[in-house]
Amino acid sequence: MKELHNVNVAMRTLARELLESGTVAGVYGWKKGSRPTLTSPLYIQDAAKADRLAYDQYAVSNLSALLLDHRNNDKKRAIFVKGCDSRGVVRLLQDQQITPEQVLVIGLPCPGMVDEAGSLLTKCAECRFPNPVMADQVLGGVEVSKQPSAPTGVTAEAARKVGVGSRAGERMAQVAQLEGKTAAEKEAYWAEQHDKCIRCYACRNVCPACNCRDCIFDTEKKGWVSKAATSSANAFFAITRAMHVAGRCVDCGECERVCPMDIPIMTVNRKLQQDIEALFGPYDAGVDETVVPPLGRYQTDDPEEFL
Amino acid sequence: MKRIGVFVCHCGSNIAHTVDCKQVADEAAAMPGVVHAQEYKYMCSEPGQVLIQEAVKEHNLDGYVVTACSPRMHETTFRKCAGRCGLNPYMVEQVNIREHCSWVHADKEAGTEKAIDLMRMGVAKVLKNEPLKAATIPMTKRALVIGAGIAGIQAALDIADNGFPVTLLDREHSIGGRMAQIDKTFPTLDCSACILTPKMVEVAQHPNVELMTYAEVESVGGFIGSFDVTIRKKARYVDTKRCTGCGACIQKCPSKVPSEFEMEMGPRKSIYVPFPQAVPNKPVIDAPHCRYLQTGKCGICKKICPTDAIRFDDQDEVVTERFGTIVVATGYQQFDISAYEEYGGGRIPDVITGMHLERLLNASGPTSGKIKRPSDGKEPKNIVFIKCVGSRDEAKNRPYCSKTCCMYVAKQATLLKEKLPASKSYIFYMDVRTGGKNYEEFYRRTQVDYDGHYIRGRVSKIFQVGDRLIVRGDDSLLGRPVEIEADLVVLAAGMDPQHDARELARTLGIAYDAHGWYTEAHPKLKPVETQTGGIFLAGACQGPKDIPDSVAQGSAAAVKASALLTKTELTGEPMIAQCNEAMCSGCGLCVTICPYKAITRQPKQERIHGKMRERMVSTINSGLCQGCGACTVACPSSAMNMGGFSDEQIMAEVDALCQR
Amino acid sequence: MRYGYYPGCSLTGTGIEYGLSADAVIRHLNMDMKEIRDWNCCGASSAHNHDPLLSIALPARNLALAEQQGFREVAVPCAACYQRIKAAEVAARDPLKRREMEEVIEEELSGAIVARSLLEIMVHDIDDSALAAQIRRPLQGLKVACYYGCLLVKPRAIAMDEAENPMTMDHLMERLGATPVEWGYKTECCGGSLTLTRPDTGVQMTAEVLKYAKLAGADCVVTPCPLCTSNLDMRQGTAEKKLGRSLGLPIYYFTELMGFAFGLPMKTLGLDRHFVEATGLLQSLPVPASG
Amino acid sequence: MSALSPKSGSPADCAVTEGHVGLPVLDPPPTAAPDTGKTKNGEWQPYIVGFACNWCTYAGADLAGLSRMQYPPNMRLVRVPCSGRVNPQFVLRAFQKGADAVLVAGCHPGDCHYGTGNYFTRRRFLLMQRLLTFMGVDPRRFQARWISGSEAPKFRDVVTELTEQVRPLGPNRLWREVEP
């Protein structure tokens, strides 16, 4: 992608400098994969490997959850972020899993991510935060913004053309469509979805909000749920996962992307987002780390339905 | 597997009438883990408890379930019973087959079935019970009383008389509070100073009391038993050890400032004591108004002082001291009448407040007790009182009654009539509320013997024409408008919380209501306690109060505080949160949700990948945790659990109920 | 700021001096104020006694027109018009009410447009130095009783100033060099709606206002309301009879005094159209040294 | 298809986070678990699990007993210190194990014995209720109520109503664990 040529050069230079100077102990970015349409995560600790870094419209992976590998480490790591990725970093900062001293956030302009066929990902069409919500440095002229905004930086024009954010108003369409169904239809729909789950936990592993040291689905001691992928246990897993990230999900869509069984996980997350906004007021998780997530606070005059 | 006993109580016929107790016991005996099941007429009786204790010994029980009445009734009984036979009291569960079963289901079959389910639930739970032990926390045998008005003075005296050291703190440089400003007290009309000053002297001279005036609380750390209180002692510019209180400096000081104590109706000096009977009776320098401190010129006080006590280089001093318990007695402030534009909003000089009139009535006040109105010093003839100014007024966000105004207005009208026999007082009221011993009688005397003219209705407007005040209102009993030409209008301004009450509450970690009054732990049964262990309330900081109520509360708070101080250590609640540090990721979700600030993130040293690393984990202060369990749900990884109501126990109960 | 100007009916009729002086002052200050095209009755004094929906729908149409014509604020000189239009603005903040209003007037309303009284615009939007620069004849020594009436300050939801002791006009008068007197009748009723139905009571109320202005030592009364002015000016003679004393208090619109201070001709401001002679008092003011 | 597809790359690119990609577990075809609710005179009875806070609702239920109020025997109460102690996972667990309906009950907001617990309860379960409805659970099967220590009649009415609301719905089989 020609707009990103200089950004790629700057990324490599910056990564090299940061590693050579010892400013950071490692850098998270992307590399070109085995196919032209694959740009996969890369972690380097050696300045010599900085040239492997690459960033283009296939660099869809959110790298923020990888920072958890170093959560008890004093050394600093640099991470390249798109708008959606940056909210994952804020998630980790707010959840106190990393400290600002441990991470150097480098914001990148996002051209809009596309699939193998070259069409814009739905999550990018629905994107409200195409610019980093926080960054220590930026490349490619991207502007940091804590407000929903239009794409900025060198790829702004390209992003606009492919329609980044053009369908932001329709984010809840899938939720609305399901809400319109009868209880029996919903039950059948979700039973089918839950039955597909193979409990690989890829959704959890990639999620920056799923940052527990020990996940309750890994600890057998308490016996919250059986390991077996039964319909019942899968539903328990799906709902519990959703409740645990309620008000904390940063809307990056990685859970759904990595799901090998195509379970519409984000529909559940979006449903919760929608209800939280309706019940407790507007809130975007992973934007402002000083605002406590909605389930960690209350208003005495919250909606009352339990009278 | 644990060896469990089940004891089925008949409660006379209360349970046995509609629950087949034998069947419950039989079903229990057949349950895995249950090694003994038994029925008895009254399990809570002495023989019943002996029966349990013998069974514990005979069958070597690890725990037992009593199916009986509500655990809210006898849980403590059956836990103590276990304690007496060497079993941990928390290895006992009581299930409720009386209130929740036999009394509410007449159908014996359905009742028995439910009782069996509940019994199974109890057994399933007790199988997961762990012995619990209450943590103990040390008690610092020293109390802090914040605020040295009459409530604080009383609290400090009572604590001191109980034999405990107490520090009495006030931000003003004399103790005494609002009561010192008041002229006479209702309903006895004894002079306020005459009954207050002996108490002030008594508390100052008490060997167990340390006075700390001109000082403010900056921060409070710690918890019940060991509060670490940081106090700022404001610079006085006078060495209190050297100063003899001779007053020569005050006399010679050339700079005059309106006196706060006199409601700015009279002057004071820049070096001053607020009022003649002040305790300690040693002046301070008001730095912003001191010529020397502002311009470097003057210094007369220093020159004249016979003991060389003036210290122009004095600095604020910040100290941190430890107290076991705190009594908050910070009082109130008078409502600011500027909110009432229709009454002149404080712009009309002869529209004054009740406290202004107290000072005008007082023989040591700015007019030496002569009633002179502020604008021109004339003696007023027609005096209008308006009650409920800043009370019972939703529009001013003061829906509450200030409780004292009805009586102080009656008192002031009486005193005015005594001082100015030719005067006439008109009193506009909404209701006259005189609940209190001899209060109603006093109010009647004001009306009958002292010519107080009570008019039921609100005043809509006061304005000035020439040197008269036109007071317009309505008489709602006669149903017609009234207009009075007055010489002086007294607004019976209500009580407001101190302007910084919320700030102090947050510092102390205590609750306050929508207006800023401090919230007691229970409106009826815990009137002087707060939700925060070890912190008590006295006086008007909790809500409008008159002097007798404030004194009573001061004594009550002192009893509560002393009860703590008699202990060398405190026993905490055994059923509290427990953090599994190995699982805890230190995210702090539990910290924000804890109502008692009992959880803090603390560093934990740990060997990770062969290196010593530090990571943050949640730590529970067993002295502060009250066992609500909110943290357990906030914690997504279930690292946070709770003794007595653990995840495992509750799940076992659910499973047992459902798997029938 | 561009304002849509809503003159209302009084400013060409009973309140002609207000209309003339407001026009002159607006023009003199070069303010970007254009009359709203095709405006209609604000509904004051009758609509809200008949039909609550009508009483907000009528003024709402004016707001809708102003929006369509690209205004974000509407400037309203007449106090009665202000109260109705402001009431419509407040009602339009409620989406349900707004939909109802839109249905009646068959126009769209954003709910974002703001109605403001000409008085507050003059005081808050024109800064001190700009105003001072215009003053040719400061109102030195003129003691004015600022009389606001009820419509600008009640009820609370629409009030442009404090209901008991408003100060907006007092500040304006001070800036023009006059001395506002402290008095208690700033917002007392002028008897407006009773003058036709219960003339005796109405005049009594008018007389009270004038009496207390006089007692406070005022030379004249200044108002922002055509209805109040009608009562205080036109009925001053009757009031004098009722009080049994002469008053001779000219009643000015604040815009007239602004215009006079700016040095505009009295005729342009309509100062010759008063019932109580109004030019003499102003002419008697000391003339500032030229320069 | 979901809202956020299509995917880029294969699921393997999540290997970087050491995801456990496994083969689907082959379940035996689900067989209906026996209904928890027993039949009485041939009529099916709903079985309801209630979580009650110790200070208000449990006390309210005690008072109902003291007042000898009569209500259907279909609910079993689990005592918890505070409604804020009720983990949504307990609710799911009850459905898994065969409850036909679940009630969470505590003090009225503002009256919490622990000050603030039930404010969090309210937020949490407002949300969970909507999520469960979204997933096809009949809202009558999961309810939350505020019942104070003095509201014995309310406790009786809530139990009665809940029982009667759930009766026409029949046994809940959604998420029910299959008997091994």
UniProtKB/TrEMBL annotation, chain A:
Annotated GO molecular function terms are:
iron-sulfur cluster binding; metal ion binding
For this UniProt record, the keywords arranged alphabetically read as follows: Iron, Iron-sulfur, Metal-binding
Indicate whether Hydrolase appears among the record's keywords.
no
Pfam families hit by this protein? Fer4_8
Q: Where is the 4Fe-4S ferredoxin-type domain?
A: 187-218, 240-269
Look up the domain of life of the source. Bacteria
Q: Which InterPro entries match?
A: 4Fe4S_Fe-S-bd, 4Fe4S_Fe_S_CS, Helical_ferredxn
What name has this protein been given in UniProt?
4Fe-4S dicluster protein
Q: Which organism is it from?
A: Heliophilum fasciatum
TrEMBL record, chain B:
Q: Which residues form the 4Fe-4S ferredoxin-type domain?
A: 234-264, 281-315, 575-604, 616-645
Any one GO molecular function term: metal ion binding
Taxonomically, which superkingdom?
Bacteria
Quote any Pfam family the record assigns: Fer4
Q: Which UniProt keywords apply?
A: 4Fe-4S, FAD, Flavoprotein, Iron, Iron-sulfur, Metal-binding, Oxidoreductase
Required cofactor names: FAD
Check the record and name the SUPFAM superfamilies matching this protein: 4Fe-4S ferredoxins (SSF54862), FAD/NAD(P)-binding domain (SSF51905)
Q: Which family does it belong to?
A: Belongs to the HdrA family.
The protein in question is named Heterodisulfide reductase subunit A
UniProtKB/TrEMBL annotation, chain C:
Q: Which residues form the Cysteine-rich domain?
A: 4-85, 144-233
Oxidoreductase: present as a keyword of the record? yes
Q: Key word Oxidoreductase present in the record?
A: yes
Which domain of life does the protein's organism represent?
Bacteria
Keywords, in A-Z order: Oxidoreductase
Q: Which GO terms describe its molecular function?
A: oxidoreductase activity
Q: State the protein's name.
A: Heterodisulfide reductase subunit B
Q: Which organism is it from?
A: Heliophilum fasciatum
Give the taxonomic lineage as stored in the record: Bacteria, Bacillati, Bacillota, Clostridia, Eubacteriales
Automatic annotation (TrEMBL), chain D:
Q: Which UniProt keywords apply?
A: Iron, Iron-sulfur, Metal-binding, Oxidoreductase
GO molecular-function annotation terms?
iron-sulfur cluster binding; metal ion binding; oxidoreductase activity
- Keyword Oxidoreductase set for record: yes
Q: Does the keyword Cell cycle apply?
A: no
Q: Which residues cross the membrane?
A: none
UniProt-listed InterPro entries: MvhD/FlpD
List, for all copies, the residue spans of the domain called F420-non-reducing hydrogenase iron-sulfur subunit D: 48-170
Q: What is this protein called?
A: Coenzyme F420-reducing hydrogenase delta subunit
